[in-house]
Amino acid sequence: MPTANTALVDRENLREGVDAALARHVASLRETVLAIGPDATPLVDAVERMLAGGKRLRAAFCYWSWRAHGGTPGDEREAAVLRTGAALELFQAAALFHDDVMDDSSTRRGLPTAHRVFADEHRTSQRRGEARRFGDGAAILLGDLALVASDEEMAHALAGLPAPVARAARTVFDLMRTEVTVGQYLDLVAQTMPWGDPADDERRARDVVRTKAARYSVEHPLVLGAALAGADEEALAGCRAVGLPLGEAFQLRDDLLGVLGDPATTGKPTGDDLREGKRTVLVARALALATQAGDTEAAAALARGVGDPGLDADAIAELTALLVRTGAVDEVESLIDELRSETFTQIAARDWPEPARSALVALAHATIDRAA
């Protein structure tokens, strides 16, 4: 994220408070794991590494929404908001551990993914059994461990809050986790489907964007912050109206960066989404535009290439050039612009006070206009 987002996360005890909550949880987890079996401590090390690389985006949306709906820095409810931010970070870690296994990703934030690290350690230690299966199994357990941790942290965050506030926040948190899990499955299903009707391909891609990424990255954290402030249903609906288009723009930008971004900045090899066969709006638009233009060669190359795990750098470059040549990149940029406009129109309709309004506006800009 750009420097603007970093500055917002560093303000008003936000990063410090979230990081402190995460550090406490990791320390407690380490004690528990050591008591169960010292051989399992690499699991705690892996969780700690994953948490260290987070941008705290979701925690920032939650915190500044709480401020926008009447939250006061330093009051008795701030600790609950910061611990909720930590729970969001732990849930994201769980989702990333599982996602990397399902996608067989090689890097995450510029470092080897957990399943690759555990497989390499298995291999170099000359252990029995298949290294890859061990690595995948360890990473699945890591995701489960982080998921349990997110639930524990959320329970601690809500303890002591007024019952209606705790119920409202818990409902949002539970829905978010269910949606991401279902969205991940829809993503898997989409990757198994043959390319067909362009409208259906894009509908399926947009469904995955909303359920797997948009709501959990922006909408639900915004609603959580408002719920923790005791906001009414009208205010929560306002958060949803802002969060969904902003979350969609966030993921569409991610899709563009996945094929056009600088790996040194994004922390992911260029073209991984194409090798994995991600059914993105970008690819759906490219196929639709190639078909409309009668460019059967481009359409066939895209349908054949997307999802081929053996694509080399030259093949990735050729597919990327097709995405640009068909006009799909420009169309996705236009769609991002539409979603940006809707986001800021919705923000303008909210009576959020300063400094929260400016903070959320800046966060929205940083979310859409980013290079990583």
UniProtKB/TrEMBL annotation:
<protein>
    <submittedName>
        <fullName>Polyprenyl synthetase family protein</fullName>
    </submittedName>
</protein>
<keyword id="KW-0479">Metal-binding</keyword>
<dbReference type="InterPro" id="IPR008949">
    <property type="entry name" value="Isoprenoid_synthase_dom_sf"/>
</dbReference>
<dbReference type="Pfam" id="PF00348">
    <property type="entry name" value="polyprenyl_synt"/>
</dbReference>
<dbReference type="InterPro" id="IPR000092">
    <property type="entry name" value="Polyprenyl_synt"/>
</dbReference>
<keyword id="KW-0808">Transferase</keyword>
<comment type="similarity">
    <text>Belongs to the FPP/GGPP synthase family.</text>
</comment>
<keyword id="KW-0460">Magnesium</keyword>
<dbReference type="InterPro" id="IPR033749">
    <property type="entry name" value="Polyprenyl_synt_CS"/>
</dbReference>
